[in-house]
């Protein structure tokens, strides 16, 4: 008898259960769904990613689940615009909560602007690098560049096609619907090569887009400026009614949260205003839970607040969402086919 067997006999194991770890196999031509399955044999982050695919796939394949999607961070500048747009078009997002910044960048691409590959500065030259970009009229989002003239294009678009449609108080989700309509029209009329994008797809498919911190963006600044010379203003509290109506009508509910901040909390807190809570949850974040901050708080923690059902299936995956989001979506699509 080995020392390990002696230890097992002396100390009954309540936490440990026989579940041998496997080793992920990879091969040429494997699908993303296959990769997620192989991740499930492994441990650490791979195991969490595999579980996230399992939960997300179940969320999408059930017809009785209303899917709420929170999108924070620089996801549009980071190249995730088409991933989200296609989810909307395929009926996998029933309510979108995002930032004014993501809608700003989405609109810029819809009307003919373009983000570009850039770079981070060499060590010790960070200040000089960004001062040079400022002199050249180029904004940097980590390793992505955006010429500032695209913001002028966007501001003209708002004045010419969006603001004049309103006179008075309007809920943010009504404003973003009109933005989507305008983006779609401009994209079509001007023959823009890039897709009309997130707001346009939401408009076409009647998916509400909520931006609870819209003032924290170029879109919000432009809305405020217009409010100074007109009766137009945005009603942030009106969207609490609108998103609560979606939640109240849901038979089952699932939350996919990309990043943290206001979009994450707005998605999750919605269940505090209705009798039920989320039945499914997947979170993709870079932030650890140990700071106590919202962006890193796990979905297990959200259960203590009553935002998730005690029986909910949920996973939190740590990692860059420009890596984890396409993997999550592609693997789920493989399994749904």
Describe the fold and architecture.
The structure is a single chain. With 337 residues, the protein is of the alpha/beta class. It has a domain at 64-276: Deoxyhypusine synthase (Deoxyhypusine Synthase), CATH 3.40.910.10. The protein has 14 helices and 11 strands. It has a 6-stranded parallel beta sheet with strand order 7-2-1-9-10-11, with helices on both faces. The mean pLDDT is 95. InterPro entries: Deoxyhypusine_synthase (IPR002773), Deoxyhypusine_synthase_sf (IPR036982), DHS-like_NAD/FAD-binding_dom (IPR029035). Keywords: Transferase. Residues 1-22, 113-132 are annotated as: Disordered.
Write the layout of secondary structure elements.
Elements: H1 3-10, H2 32-39, H3 44-61, E1 65-71, H4 81-89, E2 95-98, H5 100-110, E3 116-117, H6 126-136, E4 138-141, E5 144-147, H7 149-162, E6 169-171, H8 172-189, H9 198-204, E7 209-210, H10 218-227, E8 233-235, H11 238-248, E9 252-258, H12 261-269, E10 278-285, H13 299-304, E11 308-318, H14 321-336
Helix pairs in contact: 2-3, 2-14, 3-14, 4-9, 7-8, 7-10, 8-9
């Amino acid at each position: 008898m080995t020392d390990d067997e002696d230890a097992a006999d002396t100390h009954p194991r309540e936490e440990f259960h026989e579940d041998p770890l496997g080793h992920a196999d990879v091969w040429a031509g494997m699908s993303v769904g296959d990769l997620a399955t192989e991740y499930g044999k492994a441990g650490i982050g791979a195991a969490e990613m595999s579980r996230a695919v399992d939960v997300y796939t179940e969320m999408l394949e059930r017809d009785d689940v209303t899917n709420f999607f929170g999108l924070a961070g620089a996801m549009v500048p980071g190249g995730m615009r088409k991933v989200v747009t296609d989810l909307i078009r395929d009926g996998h997002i029933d309510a979108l909560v995002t930032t004014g910044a993501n809608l700003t960048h989405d609109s810029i691409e819809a009307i003919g602007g373009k983000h570009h590959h850039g770079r981070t500065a060499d060590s010790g030259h960070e200040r000089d690098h960004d001062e040079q970009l400022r002199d050249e009229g180029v904004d940097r989002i980590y390793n992505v560049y955006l010429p500032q003239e695209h913001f002028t294009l966007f501001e003209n678009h708002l004045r010419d096609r969006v603001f004049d449609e309103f006179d008075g108080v309007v809920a943010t989700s009504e404003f973003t619907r009109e933005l989507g309509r305008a983006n779609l029209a401009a994209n079509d009329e001007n023959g823009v090569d890039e897709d009309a994008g997130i707001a346009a797809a939401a408009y076409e498919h009647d998916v509400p887009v909520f931006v609870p911190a819209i003032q924290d963006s170029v879109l919000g600044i432009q809305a405020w400026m217009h409010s100074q010379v007109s009766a137009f203003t945005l009603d942030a509290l009106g969207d609490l009614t609108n998103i609560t109506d979606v939640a109240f009508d849901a038979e089952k509910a699932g939350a996919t949260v990309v990043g943290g901040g206001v979009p994450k909390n707005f998605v999750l807190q919605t269940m505090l205003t209705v009798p039920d809570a989320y039945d499914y949850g997947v979170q993709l974040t870079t932030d650890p839970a140990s700071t106590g901050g919202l962006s890193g708080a796990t979905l297990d923690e959200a259960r203590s607040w009553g935002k998730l059902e005690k029986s909910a299936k949920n996973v939190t995956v740590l990692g860059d969402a420009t890596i984890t989001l396409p993997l999550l979506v592609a693997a789920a699509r493989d399994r749904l086919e």
